[in-house]
């Protein structure tokens, strides 16, 4: 009986992970399909700049495809970037990063959907927009 319950729990967890991954892939597909050819080409042509002293962390150009004001002080962004670094099934494809930033910084730099920005990507911690 214990094996059946354990199997059911593991099966449910696998099903939830599968559904969430499918939704994430559909979301990315919607974002990518809304890009112009010029935007796709610019993302694909981005140069990768390694971050000194940090392993597997780099800077490249990304495109803000969605900006949602979460509160008076916080904005949630979806930034698209072209994967030229991570050797997995998304290599040489457009990926997305969910980035949170302060609304004051977002407004100060007059950012909006469709803007190209420099992003620092750390696969372990996520991404962040950088200003030079």
Mean pLDDT: 86
The profile of the biggest β sheet is: 6 strands, antiparallel
Number of strands: 6
H/E order of the elements? HHEEEEHEE
Globally, the shape reads globular
* Percent of residues in β-strands: 25-35%
Helix content: 25-40%
Q: Helices and strands: which structural class?
A: alpha+beta
Discrete helix count: 3
How far the N terminus sits from the C terminus, by CA atoms, comes to 61 Å
How big is the Rg?
18 Å
Q: Which regions have little confidence, pLDDT < 50, spanning 5+ residues?
A: none
Describe this structure in words.
The chain has helices at 2-33, 37-44, 103-108, and strands at 49-50, 58-69, 74-82, 94-102, 116-122, 126-130. Strands 1, 2, 3, 4, 5 and 6 form a six-stranded antiparallel sheet that branches. It has 132 residues and is α+β, with helices and mostly antiparallel strands. The protein has three helices and six strands; from the N terminus they run ααββββαββ. It is globular.
């Amino acid at each position: 009986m214990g094996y059946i319950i354990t199997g059911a729990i593991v099966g449910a967890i696998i099903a939830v992970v599968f559904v969430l991954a499918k939704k994430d892939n559909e979301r990315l597909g919607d974002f990518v399909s809304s890009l112009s050819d010029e935007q796709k080409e610019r993302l694909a042509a981005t140069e990768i700049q390694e971050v000194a002293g940090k392993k597997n962390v780099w800077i490249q150009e990304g495109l803000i495809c969605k900006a949602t004001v979460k509160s008076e002080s916080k904005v949630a962004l979806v930034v698209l970037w072209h994967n030229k670094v991570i050797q997995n099934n998304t290599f040489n494809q457009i990926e997305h990063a969910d980035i949170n930033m302060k609304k004051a910084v977002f407004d100060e730099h007059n950012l909006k959907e469709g803007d190209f920005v420099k992003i620092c990507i750390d696969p372990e911690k996520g991404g962040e927009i950088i200003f030079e």
